[in-house]
Amino acid sequence: MKALVVEEKKRSQELLVWLLTRWGLEVQVAGTIEEVRAILASQAGDRGQCRVVLINQNLREADGYEVAREIRASAQGESTAILMLSSGPSILEETRATECGVFRRLSMPLRRRVLWESLRAALTPGKPERMPAIEEQVSTPCRHLRILLAEDNAVNQKLAVRQLEKMGHQVVLASNGAEACEALRTSIYDLVLMDLQMPVMGGLEATIKIREREKYSGEHVPILAMTAHAAAQDEKRCLEAGMDGYLTKPIRGEVLRKEIDRAVTNSGPTENRNGAMPNGDFSEGDWNVSELMERIEGDHDFFRELLQMFRSDSHATLMKAHEALAQDDLVAMSRAAHTLKGMMKNLSMNAAAEIATALEAAARGGEHAKAETLLERLDRSIAALMPEVESHLAEVRA
């Protein structure tokens, strides 16, 4: 099966091509509307035409929805599933997506499991074609990964490399955080194992830099922390920096295997004696969708309406909170936090609602520094919810 990626950023092109080819698709890339037209013309009447097209909405030379409209108008457009990659979800975009025949919209940064499930839905609308089950491609423990190991201690390097290679993984070494950042800038990895204490740049600082860059690239590489300490404060610092898991040295092989599998499959967090921490993916404690559906008596149209409102209103209210912070107006920030708290409690988004509750209390108490930290956490929590919201919206629409 063929896929077309419409993306002008080389790094994002490489990431999407790498994922799609590993999932058995033959991929073509277009960086401009002219290249899209040339590919469509070359495939006219061809049985091997593209079955799915992934389009970045924010192209410099053309709007992504106009590209989608042009594909829809082409000879093979009717049988092509279009996935739109977007960093700014809104009700207006939802309307445009429907008008342009977009099958599903995916929020950036893009999570691997969300992309896979969207592809599977797009390519198997009736009876399934022969694409390997997601468990075969994503969650099989013996799947060979390309892993970046950031560790400065030679003995620890040797032990970790031995463990990982015995599991069938390919390992690339970085001796400090700066080298890890550079390695991720120039190549693609399935996972990073990041020591916290390293010379030049430590693991926390490196992770913060990586996550900042990912805001613009749309990527998300899983990062597991490695440390000799198991203090709750260390776990909190890792979570706030954007890490996906936490391992305490010495790391046992089976624990390492399970944590790697969990991190790369975006499955829920698991507890173990090496201190694995939550990775930002969803359990009922984060967002209890079943509870929400029970309260609205299974009304899918109403569910869709609520999620559309959340997408637009949460963004607008977060902006008010940031403006209040910039103006040192903690009263206004408290009001914004209160609004978000109520909204998310009503939607059973419990984890984010707890952060909003703490933010409201900190703002009311005049604790500017604490409120600033909590607002950053709330930003990340809501951003992490958005791909899940988009996935549910797409399922309701389908």
Helix content: 40-55%
- Poorly predicted ranges: 127-142, 267-282
Termini separation comes to 22 Å
Tell me the series of helices and strands, N- to C-terminal: EHEHEHEHEHHEHEHEHEHEHHHHHH
Major beta sheet, strand line-up? 2-1-3-4-5
Rg calc: 22 Å
Number of helices: 16
What integer is the average pLDDT?
80
Describe the structure.
- The protein is an alpha/beta fold and about 400 residues long.
- The chain folds into three domains: about 1-135, 3-Layer(aba) Sandwich (Rossmann fold), CATH 3.40.50; about 140-265, 3-Layer(aba) Sandwich (Rossmann fold); about 290-395, HPT domain (Four Helix Bundle (Hemerythrin (Met), subunit A)), CATH 1.20.120.
- Helix content is about 55%, strand content about 15%.
- The chain is built from 16 helices and ten strands.
- It has a five-stranded parallel β-sheet, sandwiched between helices. Strands 7-6-8-9-10 form a five-stranded parallel β-sheet, sandwiched between helices.
- Strand 4 (about 80-85), helix 4 (about 90-100) and strand 5 form a beta-alpha-beta unit.
- Helix 8 (about 175-185) runs parallel beside helix 9, helix 13 (about 300-325) packs antiparallel against helix 14 and helix 15 (about 350-365) packs antiparallel against helix 16.
- It is globular, with a radius of gyration of 22 Å.
